[in-house]
Amino acid sequence: MLSAERFLGVGGFLPMSLSTASPLKVVILGCGRVGSTLAKQLSQEGHHVTVIDLTSDSFRRLGTKFKGQRVVGTGLDRDTMDKAGIAKADVFIAVTQGDNTNIMAAQIAKQVFAIPRVHARIYDPIRSQAYREMGIMTLCTTTIAAGVLHAAVLQTEESIKWQERLESWDIDYPAQIG
Length: 178
Hints:
α6 (about 140-155) packs across α7. The chain is of the alpha/beta class. The chain contains seven helices and six strands, in the order αβαββαβαβαβαα. α2 links the parallel β1 (about 25-30) and β2 (about 50-55). The longest helix is centred in the C-terminal third of the chain and has 21 residues, at about 155-175.
């Protein structure tokens, strides 16, 4: 299980922005809460962001200030991926509600399009580990949430610090992305 300490970093908090010399071309599959929030943040930081989702209605989460591209379709379809500019992407992130979709799309991005950095949210810890071993950076929100909550239950000094950081993030993060 991923501990809260490994998730947050020793004594640290997840950075709000990536430090890069030039803007990244990022393709995000899934415009739910996570995908839309990440897309807005990266776009505001000056990165070139394209979001793919099955329905155009999902793009309402991006708001009117989002400067990136919106593509209706599935991340498993070559035409949709081409419309999203996947061939020139630096990063591909799959954050739909389905593990199977996220894994398949991540594999396509990595193996077919040779995207250098591929990330996928996976709910199943066993699948997450297996795909991590295949070179896909996975984020298993199941084990992360369990680790953070476990630490909170134990109420150690460090877990209190984590809770304060998480609460601060919940307050500060939405304000940063509007």
